[in-house]
Amino acid sequence: MGNNGPSRRAFLLGAASFGGLALSGCSAMVGNRQITVPNLLPAIISPYYLQIYGAMPEERFPVPAVDLNKVDQRYLRTEVDDPTGEKPGTIVVETSARFLYLVQDNGTAIRYGVGIGRDGFTWSGRGSIGRKAQWPTWYPPASMMQRQPETREFAGGMPGGMNNPLGARAMYIYRNGVDTIYRIHGTREYWSIGKAVSSGCVRLINQDVIDLYSRVSVGTPIIVRG
């Protein structure tokens, strides 16, 4: 999994650091399976999570540490038994559960928490990663500029940076070789993970999107299940 990858042992140690105070969790459908994800009390944070969600000063635009007390613990990056049934190397986004899975070749998957688009701005289907970019330029779609005239200021593009809506990395979803205009991207608003507030894209904590970006390549298949 690499030095930055999650492990079952690390996750269990993280859970143990909560003194065994796992609460009854929420249920969600993943494919045709119902899973229960426990809520963990955030009073004590595992050193493992403090490390992987720590500051990243080496980035072109330094990424600050995540205040983990502002993130629902169920959405932190971890390794789980693969619930998707898809082939290794596939990205699966389960919008109802607010999870993104990267399927591994050992019957497991890396699970990331995501934020998704509001009702009416969501997309689902099969595609692939058609392009990748670090600290990408953001171009507001024409439909967004109609809904939100203030975004017209950036019709020529907003350069990468911490204030850019695409965050530290972006992976562009294509279908049949055509850009769908939907992206997997980062966000500095880590408190929004698990919620539906964006205009259609799948967003991750910047530390998580940097990790995912390092593990996938152009051509990686992606399935978004609405």
From TrEMBL:
Active-site residue list: 185 (proton donor/acceptor), 201 (nucleophile)
Keywords assigned by UniProt, alphabetized: Cell shape, Cell wall biogenesis/degradation, Glycosyltransferase, Hydrolase, Peptidoglycan synthesis, Transferase
Domain of life: Bacteria
Any one of the GO BP annotations: regulation of cell shape
Matching PROSITE patterns: LD_TPASE, TAT
Pfam family, one: YkuD
Pathway(s) served: Cell wall biogenesis; peptidoglycan biosynthesis
GO molecular function, a single term: glycosyltransferase activity
Record-annotated L,D-TPase catalytic domain positions: 89-225
Any one of the GO CC terms: extracellular region
PANTHER family from the UniProt entry: L,D-TRANSPEPTIDASE (PTHR30582), L,D-TRANSPEPTIDASE ERFK_SRFK-RELATED (PTHR30582:SF24)
Family note: Belongs to the YkuD family.
Protein name: L,D-TPase catalytic domain-containing protein
Taxonomic placement: Bacteria, Pseudomonadati, Pseudomonadota, Alphaproteobacteria, Hyphomicrobiales
